[in-house]
Amino acid sequence: MKILVPIKRVPDADTRIRVRADGSGIEDDGIKYAVNPFDAIALEEAIRIREARGGEVVVATIGGGECAEQLRNGLAMGADRAILVNTSDALDSLAIARILAALWKREQPAFVLMGKQAIDDDSNQAGQMLAALLGVGQATFVSKLELAEDNSTALCSRETDAGIERVRVKLPAVITADLRLNEPRYVSLPGIMKAKKKPLEEITPADLGVAAASRTHYLRYEAPPRRSAGVRVATVDELVDKLREAKVL
Amino acid sequence: MSKILVIAEHDAGQLKGGSLSAAGFAQQLAAATGGSFEILVVGHAVDSVAAVVRTSGAAAVLAADSAALERPLADRYAKVVADVARARGATMVAGASSTFSKDVLPRAAALLDAAMVSEVVGVRVEGGEPEFRRVMFAGNVIATVRVDGPVRVATVRAAAFAAPAQAAECPVERVAVDEAALPSFLEFVDREAKAAGRPDATEARIVVSGGRALKNSEDFERLVGGLADALGAAVGSSRALVDAGITPNSLQVGQTGKIVAPDLYIALGISGAIQHMAGMKDTKVIVAVNKDAEAPIFEVADYGLVADVYEAVPKLIEKLKS
To answer: Which domains does chain A have, with CATH numbers?
Structure first.
């Protein structure tokens, strides 16, 4: 069974994000990049499935040459091979989904596992769009994944606003990982050494027959209004008095 | 001129409040472009929900009512949304930023060949074209974006848009649902029973939230739950407690959990990680109780009390009850 895991290079979750003074973008000085945490969870799940049932885990990303670093990271975690779809264009989720759909057609995986959202743009769109373009099912925000014995369906626990919902989705499908699906393993030194020998293929969107252009244009960026610290109260009584004065109680 | 289709979200016959904010967004955009908006209710036995949204200033309420739509399965709902958007000539499809919309609307967007903008907190029209303000990077950046194409899709943050003023009742139109054409990739199995009695954190006026200071679920229930009940409030939790198994996933407030913006948010023993604050910093009044005077939560709190929650909260509950 082949599982395709698209991943994204994003600023590390602990990096402090600052907007450039001229509003043209994000200050990239001193930013450390990492695999999007939700994608790392998706990759971990794919590796565990392969460990249990055999097959192949293919990790892929779309972006510039610098993204090879995150693919090597995925290979070091345990993916079998990697594909970099090299483009310097800033692409929106629909354009990304188009490229992934073309990659799917080339790779013919049993299913796609990917993060529910990237922590940079927080869009939460690409997986659902990919499923629609392919005409397959989707299970989003998945915190537990159980494959049927014959690999024809997956029973997925989904984290929704109303609580955990369970759905059974026919495979092939796109499954997006939520935080509690698993805890990704740490990359080991032998893993890093092995990763160096694993295949990392570089192609372009044109090789996949896709001319995907972004229809979303980012005009400018700003920092949100800062909340200023309020007052310290000394006692519970004072707190209640203040809240009554502010008419929130 | 825009024609906006707002997707009304509901659960067990109850409209979700965020849907009215999405209608507020649509009304604002329609007014700025000389357009109009319609509200689509998808589901089974949705008459009561359709009736509630009739007075929201929409040109019409559309009801796609079918037994095949009883559960909000993304494959079916997205197809219905896309079909109705096409049939009505919608230039924009919008819904509240919720797990429901995030599941269904990107899928509908791809079916419509439409680009989508998530987490919208503002809109204005420049040269006839809408510009959307959207939140990204865990709430640390607000970007202004334009989206090309004849149709666009958006999810909007409920706190950023007020519900439309009450208007005269508009007509409710039934839209035909071709059940045979609906996909069947997904089968609903079950849903965890919801803790009864307390409101949902995304809908409540007051949210009481607990963090790492709470040592176990009994203490969480006694202190966080107890204070919430004294105030008629919803409960929330930091990620730390969810990870520790003390609170269920559905309570998590933050970048990857629920985004809330109540009138009052009471953070009990929460240190205030960036990812948590991304989920609550649009609250009107924030109260923090934490024994660590240096906790980052105090940097955003309107009222801060440096105290052990185990001592302060019982006093607070007692005082509110008296």
So the answer is: 2-217 (3.40.50.620)
List the 59-98 stretch of B: residues with Cβ below 8 A of A: 73-75, 78, 98
Reading the block at residue B295, the tokens are 């906790």
Cis peptide preceding B314, ω within 30 of 0: no
The reported pLDDT for the residue numbered A229 is 80
How close A114 comes to chain B (CA, Å)?
Answer: 14
| B-chain residues near A160 (CB < 8 A) | 99-100, 103, 191, 250
- Is the model's pLDDT at A164 over the cut of 70? yes
Q: How far apart are CA B197 and CA B199, in angstroms?
A: 7
DSSP-assigned beta bridge partners for residue B235: B208
Considering only CB atoms, A123 lies closest to which of B100, B118, B298, namely: B118
Question: What is the CB neighbour count within 10 angstroms for residue A208?
Answer: 20
Q: Which of A81, A10, A33, A131 is nearest to B109 (CA)?
A: A131
Q: What's the rounded Cα separation, in Å, for the pair A52 and A39? A: 20
Alpha helices (runs of H) in chain A, residue ranges in sequence order:
37-53, 68-77, 93-107, 126-134, 189-195, 236-245
Q: pLDDT tens digits for B94-135? A: 999 999 999 999 999 999 999 999 999 999 999 989 999 999
Tokens of B316: 């607070």
SS3 of A184, please? coil
Give ipTM to 2 decimals: 0.96
Residue B177's closest CA among B63, B10, B45, B49? B63
The Cα B300–Cα B279 span in angstroms is 13
CB A194 within 8 A of CB A200: no
Question: A33: how many CB neighbours lie within 10 A of its CB?
Answer: 18
User: Which of B100, B116, B106, B109 has its CA nearest to residue B158?
Assistant: B100
For the whole model, what pTM was predicted? 0.94
Give residue for tokens 């709430």: B139
Number of H helices, E strands in chain B: 9, 17
Distances (CA, A) of B5 to B60, B65, B75, B116: 10, 17, 19, 14
Candidates B275, B300, B274; CA nearest to B288 is B300
* Predicted local distance difference test score (pLDDT) of residue B195: 62
Kind and range of the H or E run holding A228: none
Minimum CA–CA partner of B274 in chain A: A14
**How confident is residue B197, by pLDDT bands cut at 50, 70 and 90?**
confident
State the architecture of B3-181 in CATH terms: 3-Layer(aba) Sandwich (3.40)
Give the H or E element holding residue A115: strand A111-115
Between helix A68-77 and helix A37-53 the angle, nearest 10°, is 40
The per-residue pLDDT for A14 is: 87
The answer to whether residue B59 scores a pLDDT higher than 90 is: yes
The CATH number of the structural domain formed by B206-321 is: 3.40.50.1220
Report domain extents, chain B: 3-181, 206-321
